[in-house]
Amino acid sequence: xxxxxxxxxxxxxxxxxxxxxLFGSSFNKExxxxxxxxxxxxxxxxxxxxxxxxxxxxxxxxxxxxxEYVAQYTDSKLPFIYKISAFWAGQAGSLLFWGWLIAxxxxxxxxxxxxxxxxxKAATFFALALTSGFFFVLTNFVTNPFKELDFFPAxxxxxxxxxxxxxxxxxxxxxxxxxxLFTLPLAHAFGSLVSNDNSSHWVKNTxxxxxxxxxxxxxxxxxxxxxxxxxxxxxGYWAWDPVENASLLPWLTxxxxxHSAIMYERKEKLKIWSYILILVTYELCIFGTFLTRSGVIxxxxxxxxxxxxxxxxxxxxxxxxxxxxxxxxxxxxLKEETNYSIFSKEGxxxxxxxxxxxxxxVILFGTTLPILTQLFPSKLTVGIPYYNKVSTPFFMLIILxxxxxxxxxxxxxxxxxxxxxxxxxxxxxxxxxxGIYAYGFTDIIPLVLFAxxxxxxxxxxxxxxxxxxxxxxxxxxxxxxxxxALIIHFGLVVLSYGVIASSFYNVSVxxxxxxxxxxxxxKYELKVGDLVIKEKQNYVSVYSPVKVxxxxxxxxxxxxxxRFYNNHKEPFAEVSIxxxxxxxxxxxxxxxxxxxxxxxxxxxxxxxxxxxxIGCAIMVLGGLHGIFPFKRNKQ
Length: 635
Known about the structure:
Elements: H1 2-24, H2 32-61, H3 68-73, H4 80-85, H5 91-112, H6 118-141, H7 167-181, H8 183-194, H9 201-205, H10 207-231, H11 242-267, H12 271-294, H13 309-329, H14 345-372, H15 384-404, H16 415-438, H17 444-471, H18 475-478, H19 480-504, E1 507-513, E2 518-521, E3 524-528, E4 532-535, E5 539-543, E6 546-550, E7 553-558, E8 561-565, E9 572-574, E10 576-580, E11 583-593, E12 598-607, H20 610-627
Antiparallel strand pairs: 1-12, 2-3, 3-6, 4-5, 5-8, 6-7, 8-9, 10-11, 11-12
Helix pairs in contact: 1-2, 1-6, 2-5, 2-6, 5-6, 5-7, 6-8, 7-10, 8-12, 10-11, 10-20, 11-12, 11-14, 12-13, 14-15, 15-17, 16-17, 17-19, 19-20
């Protein structure tokens, strides 16, 4: 079975290589024959890699432990759904999954843009085939998911217990989709440069892909935070882990690109910004994959040491040089007026670009510092305080601008008109901030963040309601691009409230008690029950039922536990969470001793944390609303 899978993925690599050669040879000449056969090999590549993927999934599902990858990431007692998700759980499988996704979307594009100019298509599919071929080089020659052992093990080693969570089913695929889909606008941007098409055609043509990329990346990042929150047992959702940062970096530049693309499409401005930002976003997607899979950083999320690093570095450098060469050859056709008034939509978008890029740079610096300094006697690292300190000012300004920008028209605007539009929001900000200050929330940083967020909230809602009052409720559908953007900004504000409250106002307590005793915590009384031991499919569960009371009224029984998995000596915490709109009660079974008859409970209260997940959902809905306009109206 392993030989069949390897043969299929090797033939997939050959198909990708042939497509690269064919399309690369037609940059300077148009050939229908080359286009025909190049497109054919794009489809052949997809078919072959799909079949190879099916072989791997079948091997995982049927416990074919002779394949090393299957033996490493599954065992006979692993629940079936996690056997399937093992496809992307390991280094080799996830790289094959990455390449398969690129191949599938390449075939979709081959059908979608079959009537485009031959040079444009040649460069576009050259970039796509080069990217998919790169991943197939890795899976064929560096980390082969079909490598067979010299013997047939009786059982596998099993999946890491941290991955045996529902998040494993949706977090990696959504994140990979976000990474992969950004390859499509990059390929079209390259196509426009090679074919000397300096119009906004490529931006318009890939708008749907760009927003879908951003949507999936947003979902992947937030679901990753939610997974960490429920699985790692520390009460938080974001710790500036290098792998977390690796997914945030392309999100920042991808968001900046979406704003630049609007200017490029509507006003033929920020053109060079658009090209640079999509290139940087693509490279950061490749770089993020490199960080996770090369083993060059220490992270709870990363894979082990490997020989992948040099391949990724060569790919990043080579693709950047190739793209920039064609960009510079077109530079004289892309020049534009860059003196934007700060009191205009163009000016705000320009400032937003710099904010997103600057924030990306400071996070990238902190993330790569251990790599950059590993040649020194002591490797340097930065911690959470660094990221919080350098990122907070940027987030403040981004939140503020997200409220101001939608109100500004294109072109210059009189300051008096801006003040007239914004004074209700400033008034609301002052009243809301004074209210929570009087309520006892007096810390300066969260207070300023709350003020800016409240300003943006009122500004966004004001614009939505003004539009509805003036044009009727149907304006939300008739001008879906504008209102999709407003819904995204509204979701960002909601998410921001959740981040501010949960980051600055959470409380916790650690108590060791005997069964039957009660812990007083925050507004709750926690009555701790005796330990219960149960044997499950592939682990033994030890938990303590904790009855929760509020003001003497019984609310719920929570069950924080420790799980002892097969092939793992150390127990893994499984938290118990009670969610309300006002906040989460989060319980961890920190310790226990049967002989001493004691149980250690760590309780955390995370205020308004559910609004992070709700805000993400609103942002996604706004993005989808903007992709599928019911009627195209100008913004």
